[in-house]
Every structure is written in structure tokens, then in C-alpha cells.
Amino acid sequence: MKPTRRDFLIGTAATLALPDIARAAPTSLTAQPGMAQLVPPDFPATPIWGYEGNVPGPELRFRQGDRLMRRFVNELPQSSTVHWHGIRLPNAMDGVAGLTQDSVEPGDDFLYGFDLPDAGTYWYHPHDRTYEQAARGLYGPLIVEEAESPEVDRDLVLILDDWRLTDDATINESFGAMHDRSHGGRIGNWITVNGRDAYAEPVKRGERLRLRLINAANARIFTLETRGLRGWTVALDGMPLEAPGPIERLILAPAQRIDLFVDVVAEDEALLVSLERTGDFALASFPVEGEIRAAPLDEPGPLPPNPVPPLGDLNTARRIELRMEGGAMGRLREARLKGVALPIRDLVAKGYAWALNGEAGMPKMPLTAAKRGQTIRIAMNNETAWPHAMHLHGHHFRQVKPDGSVGPLRDTLLVNRSEATEIAFVADNPGQWLLHCHMLEHAVAGMTTWLDIA
Ligand code: C2O
Ligand code: CU
User: Fold this and answer.
1) Are residues 258 and 252 in contact, defined by beta-carbon separation less than 8 angstroms?
2) 208 C-alpha vs ligand 2 centroid, how far in Å?
3) 198 CB neighbour count, 10 Å cutoff
4) Does pTM surpass 0.90?
């Protein structure tokens, strides 16, 4: 039998040994227009774009080591792809339009298939005109369960988003507006959890919940607190902490995730609140109905670590500088665009407002060409007046503190205004990987570069 390209993608070696079910056609994931009741029911529903027409898209849930197979079908009026945020996967499956694959035209499809090496909380979203497509509702949770489930009573996914809605609850179509590009990105005027205006989930006193928080907003940084819940942060960006930490004030930048284990201690209602300028805003309510146990469960131990390679010697690691410049109130006077130096007014006329190492927009040359297995340090210097949520594709990194100690594994790091910080990671995944700001208007306005790992 002659192997077809599809057999090749599925993996010829395993095909014969697998039961029929595993060889069946992969389930599809269709991006299409739909309607969502983002606002209270006495207001109209909102036309959105969503996976399967819903926001959030379907919760894709697997077990660590499983293979994800989805045929992406594009029923949108523009080209699109799917990026599997935080998954350490083969480069060709990373879904970056124009870098790792051609964008999928309306009416076309693309088969994604890859193994899931790490347990944790991840998510998926387009990587083509992301600032528009994510703002219209294209995103969903991708959950990879540990080989052995930890002791919790319930596992709840909460995807946070903000929307810019008009008075009749339609999406304001000011996608990629220059003001958003050059300031804090597209900040909405309406917040949802799991695409709903009022998230409420009845719980029992003494119940232990695992809350998987995902920030799917284009640019909003959430500052969160819990009320009536006692618990621990157990993972960041999918990756388990070596020791569960206390929950204080939680900062959740765009694209970041936090996993919490919480015990319900409230008498009648527990809350997840967002601290907004206008005051506390209840994102999620957990009305208490009865009791599940009188004494709380024991303190949780750490989740089992994922098989991420340990950092090599930081003293001999390759060190790269990343100068972040531009934006409103910045000092950027000129930058190169596709190799040509342009003054800031010309850059702005073309929609650019930021530069990484003096390059606005996706540079021809990578930030670095690394050898597989090398430990890389990137010293990020935020010379702008804005915070940026810097995301590296295909790898998790650790922040390197000034004293040389390292922080937890992450895939997206919030770099505050005027902050200089370093990250380090093992470049163990060959291919072309983006490094960009996950404030999506910043990414398209100049804060995108890439690494080449051979
Ligand atoms: Cu969440 Cu480059 O993406
Ligand atoms: Cu940014």
C-alpha cells in the first residue's frame, strides 16, 4: 500500500497497531460566525466569530501523552489558522500564518495533529489577524489532564475576556485602531467569563475546586482576588509550581493562565473579583449550597512536573539583548521596516508604533539562530511607557532574577514599563518560533520577532 500524505501526518509507524477508532477521521474544529448572549438577556445577542460558532470554543480535554487531532475548517470570511498556545509541539503545527504554514483560506481546511507532552491549562486561538479574530470571539480552552488526577472535587475552566461593544451589543469594529496600537491595546468595555455576562456556579462548603483561569483578552491585564475561598496557586501557564503558593493578588496578563486549588470556606457566596479602577467587579460567583465535608482536605502537594529540560549553565549560556521601544510617550524616532530605516511618522502611517532591537514588524532575520539544546538568555529591556506580555512560542522559559535565581516556568511574561528583566530557556525544539507581545495590537504594530532553532 502506498502511503499517502495524510498517513504520513498521522504517523505511519503506529497506524497498523492502533485500533480502528484511532484511525477514524479526526474530529473537526470549525471557525464560523455565530451568536452569543454576552450581555443580560433583556439585551440583544451579539454576532461573533467562534469555533463551532460558540465563544468560548469547545473545551478540548485530553490526557497527558495523548495525541490531539483536529481538522480545522475555515468558514470565516477571511483566512485563519489555529495556534495552540503554550503547547510544546512540532513547528509545523504551531499555526503561525506566513511563518509555519500558509493561512487557511475561507472554505479550506488544515489537519492539525501532535502529541501533548505536558499536562496543564492551555488554549487555542487564531494566528492570522489575531487582533481582529480573537476580539470577535475565536478562542477556546485546551486542557491536558495529569496522568493521575489530583484530589479535587471539581475542575472548572474560567476564560476571561473583555469586549468592545456598541450600544446595541454588537462588536465595535475598530480592530487594530491606531490609538490602540500605540497605547495599551484594545481594552473593552464589557467583561465576560466563558462568554457569559454573569458566571455563577453553585458549590458546597468544604468543596475543593480546581480553577483554571485563562486570559483571552486582546490587551487587558486582570488583577484578581478571591473571597470566601482558601487555597493555593498550583500552576502558571500550564506548568506546575515546585511548591503550591498562597493566593494573594493575582496578576493575569493577556494569554497567561493560573491554576488554583481552592477550598470553599464562605457561608453563602464565594467570589472571584477583578480589581478595576471603578472598584471591585465580581467576575464569578459561587453560591454556597450545603456542605460536602466538615474538615477541609489536606494541603495539596505539588502537581507532578512536566518533562521540560532543565536549564544549562547560565554563565555560559548565549545571551541576547531585546530592546523594546516605541508607543505613546516613548522616545522612538525611527526604526527599520523590512530592512529600510523609516522615521516614526512614516512608521505610524503604515500602522507601526513599536520596535524590537530597532525593527518594526516581523524582521527578515531571526533575533537569534540557535543550536538545538543550547541554553538561551534573552535580556529584555522595556524602554516604553507600557507593560508588555511577552510570549515565546514552542518553549517555556524561566525568569532570571538579578541574583541569578530563577522563577517558575512560563510561556508569557509581563514586563512592566521601564523594567529590565531576563528569561532563559533550553532551545530544544527545532523550527522558527515567534517571540512577541501578546497585547495583540502591539504584536501587529511592531512587537514581533522570531528565533530560528536548528
Ligand atoms: Cu497566544 Cu503567538 O500566541
Ligand atoms: Cu505590548
Assistant:
1) yes
2) 36
3) 11
4) yes
